[in-house]
Structure formats: structure tokens, C-alpha cells
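Hallway conversation turned thread

IA: we were arguing at lunch whether anyone had actually written out Gliding motility-associated C-terminal domain-containing protein end to end. Turns out nobody had. So, for the record, here is the sequence (147 residues) and right after it the C-alpha cells. Reply here if something looks off.
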Amino acid sequence: MNASATGDSLKYQWSPAIGLSSTTILDPVITVTKDITYTLTVTNNKGCSVSDNVNIKALLDPVVPNTFTPNNDGINDKWDIKYLDSFSSCTVDVFNRNGQKVFSSIGYKTAWDGQSNNSNLPFGVYYYIIDLKNGRKPVKGYVTIIR
């Protein structure tokens, strides 16, 4: 946390205490696994207090499935990557075995449906690179289309 407050003999109270290294210091260390809103109440030595909220959005590592079945049966038809929607400027690139790019996305707002140029791609293994654009190493691996 990088909160600020000015005054003499100030007391700090954060709530809830979940994920905080301390609830009584101005800038505690936060460890969270889900989105949360914290409230900081600052009280001076005369008993006057003020409160403010801060929303923390947890950036969880994407969970990338290694297979999907785009056969229009309504089950597992798209390559849904859990938590990827938290990374609004990420890039996702998928390549066939010849190294040709068959899918590309910035932000991954719409999950890949196993198509390239409006045509169904065949059963097979495809290589992907997901760059979260936040300083973390790109996520690389393979996804299999099963038809």
C-alpha cells in the first residue's frame, strides 16, 4: 500500500485485516488472492477521524487449458483462459506446426473458437505465446484442438 496522511500523533486502522501485514501502520504489505476493498481510518490525537477506501484488483496467473473441443456441442467449444481478462493489454498468439500464426488477439476479449480466417482448423497441436504485458515472462505452451 502506498497511502499518505499528514498530521501529528496519527493512528491508522485498516479493515478488513485479510491479507495485510499489519492493520495499524500507514503502508502495510498486501497479499491477496481475490479482489478486495480496504478502508483506512486515520485518527488524530484530538479524536478527529477520516476514512477512505481503496479497491485492490488481484492479478492471478492465467490458467491455460491444454485442450478444447470446438465442435459446437456447447461444451468446451472455446479456449477459455481463466483470469486472462484481468490483463487488458495482453497478447495471445497461436501458431500451427509450420510456424504460421493462426490466431492473434490483443486483450483476449473473445475466446478463440479454433478457427483461422473463418475456417475450422483441423485436429492438432498448436503452439501459443501469451504475453501479459506486465513485466512477467510470457506464458508459452501447447493447446490441442480435438474435433
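OS: looked through it. The first strand starts at residue 11 and ends at 15.
IA: good, adding that to the notes. The mean pLDDT is 95.
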